[in-house]
């Protein structure tokens, strides 16, 4: 029960950080592409560090498992980066243009959300099988549960800060 509470509290704190970042991005003037990329890299590094820390605190690996699992998890996160970066750029574009969005633009934004979800689910399915070979089924499922819960918390934080289509 304590671990669950600690996990929920940590997820909440990460979400607050995410919301603060998202709000900050909306209130700033439009930065150039290099600034956006730098902000994405910093934001992503913070998310991944917190994600890895929370997973490490909620699983127990042998030395042999850890030696194989963490490098694989790093590759998994790099693959997540591509999806997250696309999403963050899409959010940035939407925030910049939502007031003048036409039907095609609104539909495109919604389809991009669906595509992101599909890509993330496909990635998780792929890595579920990969992680199982290293740490077994139950531990893999635990890792994926934590990863998914964190992802949903971040998605909720993003969604609550993104203006609705007008």
Record keyword descriptors for this entry.
mainly alpha; elongated; 87% helix
> Into which percentage range does the β-strand content fall?
under 5%
What summary fits the major beta sheet? none
Distance between the termini: 43 Å
> Number of helical segments?
5
Helix content: over 70%
| Order of helix and strand elements from N to C terminus | HHHHH
Rg, rounded, reads 17 Å
Helix/strand/pairing class, anyone?
A: mainly alpha
| Number of DSSP E strands | 0
Number of domains: 1
The oligomerization state is single chain
Gross geometry: elongated
Low-confidence stretches at least 5 residues in length (pLDDT < 50)?
19-31
Give structural notes.
The structure is a single chain. The chain has 5 helices and no strands. It has one domain. The relative contact order is 0.15. α1 (2-27) packs antiparallel against α2, α2 (33-58) runs antiparallel to α3 and α4 (103-135) runs antiparallel to α5. The protein has 166 residues and is an all-alpha fold. The chain is elongated, with a radius of gyration of 17 Å. The termini are far apart. The longest helix is centred in the middle third of the chain and has 35 residues, at 63-97.
Sum this structure up briefly.
The chain is mainly alpha-helical and 166 residues long. It is built from five helices and no strands.
């Amino acid at each position: 029960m304590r671990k669950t509470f600690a996990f929920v509290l940590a997820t909440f704190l990460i979400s607050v950080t995410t919301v603060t970042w998202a709000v900050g991005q909306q209130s700033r003037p439009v930065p150039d592409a290099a600034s956006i990329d730098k902000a994405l890299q910093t934001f992503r590094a913070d998310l991944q560090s917190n994600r890895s820390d929370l997973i490490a605190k909620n699983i127990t690996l042998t030395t042999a498992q850890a030696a194989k699992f963490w490098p694989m998890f790093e590759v998994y996160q790099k693959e997540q980066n591509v999806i997250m970066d696309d999403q963050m750029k899409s959010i940035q574009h939407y925030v910049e243009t939502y007031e003048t969005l036409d039907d095609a633009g609104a539909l495109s934004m919604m389809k991009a959300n669906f595509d992101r979800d599909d890509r993330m689910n496909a990635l998780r399915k792929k890595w579920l099988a990969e992680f199982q070979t290293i740490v077994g089924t139950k531990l893999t499922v635990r890792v994926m549960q934590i990863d998914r819960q964190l992802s949903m918390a971040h998605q909720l934080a993003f969604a609550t800060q993104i203006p609705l289509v007008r």
